[in-house]
Amino acid sequence: MDHGVDQVLSYPLPSPSALEAPQEWVRLRTECPVAPITFPSGDAGTLLTRYDQVKQVLADSRFTRELSAPDAARLTDTESGGLFNSSMAQLIPQSGEGHLRWRRLINRWFTAKRMNALRPEIEAMADTLIDGMVASGAPADLKAKFGFPLPVWVICDMLGVPDSDRDRFSTWSDMILNLTRYREDEVAASMGEFFGYLGQHIAAKKADPGEDILSELISATDSAGERMSDETLAATGIGLLVAGHETTANMIAKMVAMLLANRELWEQLLADPSLVRHAVEESLRYDPNPGLGMVRYIAEEAEVAGTTFPGGTTVLCSMGAANRDEDVFPDGESIDLTRNPNPHLSFGSGAHSCLGQALARTELQVALEVLLRRLPTLELAVAPEELNKVEGLVVGGLREVPVRW
C-alpha cells in the first residue's frame, strides 16, 4: 500500500486497539501535516496534525463553524449532515459578535469559583454512584455505573432538571451525538422530544425560578441589552448536555482505563494523590481515542502557518495528534503524571475553546479522587487490548470498562 502524501485517507483513522493511538499520527505529523481526507459522507476535507497549525487554525476567526455553508463538507451521509448542521447549531450564534455575547452570558456560570462551589455536590454524587456499584458487586462496568451517569447528574443539577428525568437526558444525549447508530428520523424525533421537554421546563422556570443556569439565563441580558429567546434557551440547554455529557463521561472511562492499564501509574497516584490534577491534564493530552476532532470551515482563501487553504475548505483539527507533537511535548508518546506545563489542545483554543472546561476538569478530578479514596485496589477485569471502542460517536470512547476491586 502506498503511504505517500498523495494518498487520501478515510476518516476516522483506524487504531490498533482502544487504548492505542492511530499509527498514522506520527507519520502525518512528520511527513504530511496537512493531509487530504474523506469523511464518512464521502465528502473531502483537510486534516491537520501538528500542534502549531492546529492551535493557529482553532484561534483564527476566519475558520468558522458555519458547517451549513453550501460548499462545506458534510460529515455524515444523513440528509441533515447530523448534529453540526442541525437546527440547534443555527439557533446558537456560531461566530462573530453574536457568539461572543452568547458565550459571555454562559461563561458567568462556568467560572472556576462556581466550579469550586459545585465540587462538594459532585463529590457526593460520585460517592453515591460508587455505593451503587459496590452494592452490585464486582466485576462491574465502570463506564455504565460511574463514568456515564456522573456528568448527566451534574448537568441535570445545573439545569434544574429533576433527578427522575436523568435517564431521559442520557438517552437524548446518546442519540443526538451518534453519527451512525441511529436512523435520521430517530435522531430528528429525539431532538424534537428534547426541544419539547425543554420548552415546558423553561416555561416552568419562568413561573417559578430556581438556583439553576436556565432560571438565570431567562432574566439575564447580554451587553446589547437583549435576552435569549426561548428557542435559544432550549438550544443552550441541549448544547450544554451534548457538550458536557458524552465528552466527560467517555473521558472518565478512558482516563481510568489508561491509568489501570499501566498499574505503576495507579500506584503512583495512590502514593501521591496531589498528582491528580496533573494526571487529569496528562490523560486529556495523551488520549489515544479522542474522537472526531474540531471541524472548521473557511469561506475565503487564507494562509496559516505556511499553508494556503482554498476558500470552501473544511478543515479537521486533530487535537489528539497535535497533543503528542514532540516539538511541544518531549516524550509525547508516553504518559508522565508529573508533566508540567501541559499546554494540550483537548479543549480547543481561541474564541471557541470549550467553555465548560472548568466543569470538565472538576468532574475528572473529583472522579479520580473519589475512586482512589474508595477503591484503591481497583483493576481492569480484562486485558487492556480487549477493551472495545465505541463506534459512530463524535467523541471517542470505550464501550465498557470492566473492573474489579
UniProtKB/TrEMBL annotation:
<keyword id="KW-0408">Iron</keyword>
<dbReference type="InterPro" id="IPR002397">
    <property type="entry name" value="Cyt_P450_B"/>
</dbReference>
<keyword id="KW-0503">Monooxygenase</keyword>
<dbReference type="InterPro" id="IPR036396">
    <property type="entry name" value="Cyt_P450_sf"/>
</dbReference>
<dbReference type="GO" id="GO:0020037">
    <property type="term" value="F:heme binding"/>
</dbReference>
<dbReference type="Pfam" id="PF00067">
    <property type="entry name" value="p450"/>
</dbReference>
<dbReference type="GO" id="GO:0005506">
    <property type="term" value="F:iron ion binding"/>
</dbReference>
<dbReference type="GO" id="GO:0016705">
    <property type="term" value="F:oxidoreductase activity, acting on paired donors, with incorporation or reduction of molecular oxygen"/>
</dbReference>
<dbReference type="InterPro" id="IPR017972">
    <property type="entry name" value="Cyt_P450_CS"/>
</dbReference>
<dbReference type="InterPro" id="IPR001128">
    <property type="entry name" value="Cyt_P450"/>
</dbReference>
<keyword id="KW-0479">Metal-binding</keyword>
<protein>
    <submittedName>
        <fullName>Cytochrome</fullName>
    </submittedName>
</protein>
<keyword id="KW-0560">Oxidoreductase</keyword>
<keyword id="KW-0349">Heme</keyword>
<dbReference type="GO" id="GO:0004497">
    <property type="term" value="F:monooxygenase activity"/>
</dbReference>
<comment type="similarity">
    <text>Belongs to the cytochrome P450 family.</text>
</comment>
